[in-house]
Design brief:
Blueprint lengths: L2 H32 L1 E9 L3 E8 L2 E8 L11 E7 L2 E15 L3 E5 L3 E5 L2 E11 L2 E11 L3 E6 L2 E5 L6 E4 L5 E2 L2 E3 L1
Parallel strand pairs: 5-14
Antiparallel strand pairs: 1-2, 1-4, 2-3, 4-5, 6-11, 7-10, 8-9, 9-13, 11-12
Length: 181
Amino acid sequence: MNKTKKTILAFLACVILVSISLYDNWKYRDRKKTGEQTVGLIESGLKNISWTYTVNGQTFTRRLSKSHYYFMEDGEKYMIYYDKNDPEQSSLSATEPVFDTTKFIRTSSLPIELEFEKGSHEVTFQFLVKNDTITRINRILFDSDITEKVNSYQVYYNADKPIISYIRLKKIRTHNTVYSK
């Protein structure tokens, strides 16, 4: 195969990959805007992540590459948006973990500095549990640009599995964690 054909094939492969990514992003936004929502349970494997959710008594499972959801842990719950006409078609909202605050312990993060533009960003934070430092990443959707000097924030963590934890950025307008009882 000559160099021109290889270049054309590489270009077409890139176009296809970008198209798939744009389509997935469009489907996610459409489901979030027009679809129904429920809570999904995360199962995190080495290469894949899956979420299981129930709609009208029927259970569905969706599996994807872990590359986009690498920070999620087994047993976490997140908001799922699904197509009401085809509930098997769903999207996981990585910025909307769902947990019962009465079953989590509240503590403070170690001081962190926040500097983000409006949009979805990964926030790395640390906190102490019995003298062990736990490092965690949450994806958070910021409603506006944010620059915060070094500060501590509330953290909720699961007593049985502290890595399952969520930072609460009070005083900062965000659209993230769903707190349930």
